[in-house]
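Margin note: ligand = aspartic acid.
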Amino acid sequence: MNKNILIVTTGGTIAMKFDENFGVLPNNELVQMLKSFPQLSDIAKIDVFEFTNIPSPYITPEIMLDLAKLVEKKLPSYDGIVITHGTDTLEESAYFLDLVLNSKKPIVFTAAMRSGSELGLDGPRNIVGAVRVATAEQSQDRGVLVVMNDEINCARDVVKTDSGKTDAFATPDYGLLGIIDPDRIVYYRDRIIKEYLPVNKIETNIDLIKCVAGMGTHHIESSINKKVKALVLEAFGRGNIPHSIIPAIKEALKKEILIVITSRTYTGRVIPEYGYEGGGKNLQDMGIIMGNDLKGTKMRLKLMILFGKYNDTSKVREYLEVNQY
Ligand code: ASP
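Resulting structure:
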């Protein structure tokens, strides 16, 4: 018997069309198209729920939490949920839901790089692929998945790596979880990390600053003035920052702002290696947390969730020190 799948639409290019006067814009045809798409009804019994219809640069962590709550509420009535989303912030929403939800049933994000007016549409194929993944027995208990271009990635590690190609999504460090072949869904590996942080609220006063050569202190000072709870520094390489920002960093630490270091490199972990002022070892000795291999954008969201859960800097610090994910 066909499984019951809910498609939750949120917007993005997959729900957009080209307008001669304005360029590519949101359009309201996707929901109707999904309801009467024969390739989908052959695979599963489909319901469609329009959560919102916005470009994904407009998605906020608050919207992610609302989306997670909706998915949690709907899951008992379905065998799996597919979420269509803009590609620009898809990896952030997918990771957010991966952290706050704990479902054996598949939750699958998908999207399109091409709007509905372009030749060679990737959206319909990606949606069919996502629904096939959501109905597959092998997709149970794999965390939130991201399906694009006949490939399955895990939410924690997937990255949008290209601004225009249809194979824009990859997991640079660890590779795909699996693929969508015409005959069946094939998994090659399981996700590496399972982390579950249920929350009812989040703390959004958390900043992310990318380190650049010769940077000044004004961004960090602005975060201090904003009284952020935590600051993610996307550092160089193994987790090193310019010595010019050390005074501002010391000031932030004095104000009990939790500082977490991630790397701005494409792959790899940050570790306490270098002892010079601003080197990773020196930073850790100052009380700064090393964020392992997690990307800065995802660490920012994780901190929002952790502060929402504990509302206590020392508990968040302890969690991060004990759980080296
Ligand atoms: N700007 C679009 C969005 O993220 C890009 C896309 O969906 O591919 O909403």
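The chain has ten helices and 16 strands.
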